[in-house]
């Protein structure tokens, strides 16, 4: 089958399946709406005509600063129909940060919540007969990566619908009934959410949550007989923690995909109990499209902690800082190479990722491979904490602490420390705010699961871990907010609590008093 422009694909689906419900939307208040292909085709063309009147044309960029909504979908398809490049943008950032991001994107038009009435009003206009054009780039995805600098990752391949989009990644491992009924949990400004539009083009049905909510997600699985969803570990943890979740009906699920970060082992086992390990598909990759590794849950059971082996032609190398390949089992920088990914480029001043002369690229993650070629991630090099001369990976500490029954969420950072250089500091969201564990209990729990040098030296309690809607964490901002060091944060927390910071008897460790987030 010859690839066609995305606009042509939308028009074809509108003609062939006019009344087929392709998109369901579950709003913040729980109300639902359903949208067929004829409506999606018509509304995206009407909006495309209105955007063209505002000067949008082939190669221009259109910012999509909208919540998950039908209007977001119409706008993305409208951009493609004009040969423009849709760039989803976080809508939940301060104005100063949004201005900085938009300066990098340079959109011809940026659509925000304030534009929703204008978008809706285009429904009263005529449906223009648009020429068949193809955007030079499939999309742009905003990311600050590890540098803190705004950047937009632009796919170098053109915006064509390729029939291979209709082949789910899991199809090589297990059964996938098509069309799929896909629940969209992630915000569509994130790659995991935005790429479900390609599933829509392949004929799958999307059930889109305006905002992730664990209880609403489970309700949607049962009511709409969801066959697939993709979730970050934090989302999966919140679903698994729902009261009575073991009695809920997940029978319609054929597979779930987990990405964004490695799953804590306890969470893999929890979901294996809920749906069966063979239905869990774990994948590792980057928005830049450097390649992928993947494995199923039952495969993971024999390689616990792994993110899989290279798929679709992906090769893996683990190199030391001098670029020399490291032996099996030794931690270094993870480099991937995949010849058919199409490439990427950045807008903005963010530097390109490090690459070898023969085309292997690293996103800054560290890890090792085992004798069977399975990759295990340690953490991002930039997040690594060097404490007392030893390397500590926050992800390992977080995985150890999240199993504590009194902890709902946890993030580990490194703060400046006169004695240790950097100290391991745990930010904890208690499961029961009225009865949180004490810092000493958290530290004692960690001591039973980690080497001594990896144990948090200080613990701080927050009302809620400050995650984005995509459940991402900005560790740099968390460190900066605490002055980068222990004393300023400890004194401030002590003043807030009305007492001096405590010291654990006989342990020589500073303990943060309980502080609100």
Automatic annotation (TrEMBL):
Residues 396-470 form the AMP-binding enzyme C-terminal domain. This is AMP-binding protein. It comes from the Bacteria. Residues 15-337 form the AMP-dependent synthetase/ligase domain. Residues 484-517 are annotated as: Disordered. It holds the Pfam family AMP-binding. Residues 484-506 have a biased composition (Low complexity). SUPFAM superfamilies: Acetyl-CoA synthetase-like. It comes from Frankia nepalensis.
């Amino acid at each position: 089958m010859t690839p066609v422009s995305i606009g042509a694909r939308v028009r074809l689906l509108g003609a062939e399946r006019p009344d087929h419900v392709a998109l369901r939307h579950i709003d913040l208040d729980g109300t639902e709406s359903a949208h067929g292909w004829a409506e999606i085709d018509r509304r995206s063309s009407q909006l495309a005509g209105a955007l063209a009147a505002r000067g949008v044309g082939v190669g221009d960029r259109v910012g999509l600063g909208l919540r998950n909504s039908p209007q977001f979908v119409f706008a993305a398809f409208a951009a493609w129909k004009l040969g423009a490049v849709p760039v989803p943008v976080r809508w939940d950032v301060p104005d100063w940060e949004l201005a900085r991001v938009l300066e990098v994107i340079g959109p011809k038009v940026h659509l925000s919540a304030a534009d929703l009435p204008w978008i809706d009003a285009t429904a009263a206009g005529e449906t223009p007969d648009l020429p068949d054009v193809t955007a030079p780039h499939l999309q742009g995805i905003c990311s600050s990566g590890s540098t803190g600098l705004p950047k937009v990752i632009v796919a170098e391949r053109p915006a064509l619908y390729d029939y291979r989009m209709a082949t789910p990644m899991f199809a090589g491992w297990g059964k996938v009934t098509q069309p799929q009924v896909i629940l969209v949990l992630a915000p569509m400004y994130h790659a995991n959410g935005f790429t479900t539009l390609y599933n829509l083009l392949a004929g799958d049905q999307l059930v889109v949550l305006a905002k992730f909510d664990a209880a609403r997600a489970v309700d949607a699985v049962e009511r709409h007989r969801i066959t697939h969803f993709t979730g970050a570990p934090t989302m999966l943890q919140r679903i698994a923690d729902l009261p009575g979740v073991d009695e809920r009906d997940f029978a319609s699920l054929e597979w779930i995909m987990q990405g964004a970060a490695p799953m804590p082992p306890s969470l893999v086992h929890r979901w294996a109990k809920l749906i069966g390990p063979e239905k869990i598909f774990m994948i590792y990759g980057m928005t830049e499209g450097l390649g992928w590794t993947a494995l199923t849950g039952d495969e993971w059971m024999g390689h616990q902690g792994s993110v899989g082996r290279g798929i679709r032609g992906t090769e893996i190398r683990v190199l030391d800082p001098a670029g020399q390949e490291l032996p099996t089992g030794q931690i270094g920088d993870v480099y991937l190479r995949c010849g058919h990914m199409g490439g990427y480029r950045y807008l903005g001043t963010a530097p390109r990722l490090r690459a070898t002369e023969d085309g292997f690229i690293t996103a800054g993650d560290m890890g090792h491979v085992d004798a069977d070629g399975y990759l295990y991630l340690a953490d991002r090099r930039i997040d690594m904490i060097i404490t007392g001369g030893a390397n500590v990976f926050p992800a390992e500490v977080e995985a150890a602490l999240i199993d504590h029954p009194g902890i709902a969420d946890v993030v580990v950072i490194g703060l400046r420390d006169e004695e240790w250089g950097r100290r391991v500091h745990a930010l904890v969201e208690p499961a029961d705010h009225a009865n949180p564990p004490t810092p000493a209990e958290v530290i004692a729990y960690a001591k039973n699961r980690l080497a001594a040098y990896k144990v948090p030296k200080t613990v701080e309690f927050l009302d809620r871990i400050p995650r984005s809607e995509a459940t991402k964490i900005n560790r740099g901002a968390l460190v900066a907010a605490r002055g980068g060091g222990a004393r300023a944060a400890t004194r401030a927390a002590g003043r807030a609590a009305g007492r001096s910071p405590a010291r654990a008897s006989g342990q020589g460790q500073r303990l943060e008093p309980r502080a609100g987030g």
